[in-house]
Amino acid sequence: MKKLKEKIFRFIITTLTLISLLLLAFIVIFIFKESVVFFKEVPILKFISGKTWNPLDSPDKLSILPIILGTIYVSLVGIIIALPIGVGSAVVLSSYTDGKIKRLIRGIVDILAGIPSVVYGFIGLLVLVKFFEIRFSFPSGESVLAGGIILSIMMLPYIISTCDESMEKIYEEHFQYSSALGVSKSYMIRKIILPESRRSILAAIVLALGRGMGETMAVMMVIGNSPIMPKLFKKCQTIPSLIALEMGMAEVGSLHYHSLFASGFILMIMLLIINIILYSIKRSMDI
To answer: Yes or no: is domain 32-50+61-286 CATH 1.10.3720.10?
Structure first.
């Protein structure tokens, strides 16, 4: 009876895994199929290297280099802000708190992860953008920096949760030995916990970058959505915001319509390349 239950459980898990893989494959194939129609008209190199996006003009004016750079720029600003805060918070949670306080903070972190992105975008538009306009006299507070700050807040729960779990295990494993040897907690954190948490920190970066580069609504509300070369205090546009804004008004089957699928395909390739690079770094850490 026990073996039968194990076989049934294994079958269910295998089936669910295959369904997940098939869904992923279907999405990739569908986006690729819709993109090929566009790439027959506009070469992929020209599409990703050109600087003009004007769907009302000729096919030559459909290129997304500024939008690609905007996507990367906003995500990098977000991860640069969020990573030290997230890792520091994970260190505090794993090494300096316990009991009710730890559960309370983890609950708050989980709530942050569950807040809809449109709420972050609304707060960013009413608070952050207005702050930049009034405090720093910007012509428009909508900028790469505003998008990066909003993204950093949205990335924090992923970084904290991923790092905290690993750091807590490492702390529990080494705390008694460190105390017996008279090693201070701060020294143990710097020399043991942080170095041994490199892989979890890298995993957190992967999750946060994936979240950041794929985010649509919150970023779209605070970056100005202008397909121009991005600058820190200027407007820009990201690939998800481009697709969200224009897919509804693109005629089905038109070159504009297929160019938006091509943009989504390029975004998937970008995420794949970033994951491969970070995976290679992770493997080098394991050696």
So the answer is: yes
199 contacts: CB under 8 Å, gap ≥ 6: 166, 282, 285, 286
Q: How far is Cα 64 from Cα 53, in angstroms, rounded to an integer?
A: 6
The C-alpha torsion from 141 through 147 and 151 to 152, rounded to 10°, is -60
Q: Please check whether residue 225 is in contact with residue 245, taking contact to mean a CB–CB distance below 8 angstroms.
A: yes
- 3-state class of 226 per DSSP? coil
H-helix segments, the chain: 2-39, 44-49, 65-95, 99-114, 117-123, 129-135, 144-180, 185-188, 194-196, 198-214, 217-220, 239-246, 255-286
Are the CB atoms for 47 and 62 separated by under 8 Å? yes
* Residue 63 structure tokens: 């290129």
User: In this structure, what are the phi and psi dihedrals at residue 236, rounded to the nearest 5 degrees?
Assistant: -155, -175
CB 159 within 8 A of CB 208: yes
Domain boundaries, given as residue ranges, for the chain: 32-50+61-286
CA atoms in the 13 A half-sphere facing the CB of 126: 6
- The mean pLDDT values, 10 residues at a time, for the chain of 287 residues are 80 92 92 91 89 81 91 93 92 85 87 88 90 83 91 92 88 82 83 87 87 88 90 90 89 88 92 84 68
Looking at residue 277, its amino acid is: I
Q: Is 67 within 8 Å of 227 (Cβ atoms)?
A: yes
CB 53 within 8 A of CB 61: yes
Tell me the C-alpha distance between 279 and 275, whole Å: 6
Kindly report whether the global pTM for this prediction surpasses the value 0.85. yes
Tell me which residue has tokens 């820190």. Answer: 232
Alpha-carbon distance of 222 to 177, in angstroms, equals: 49
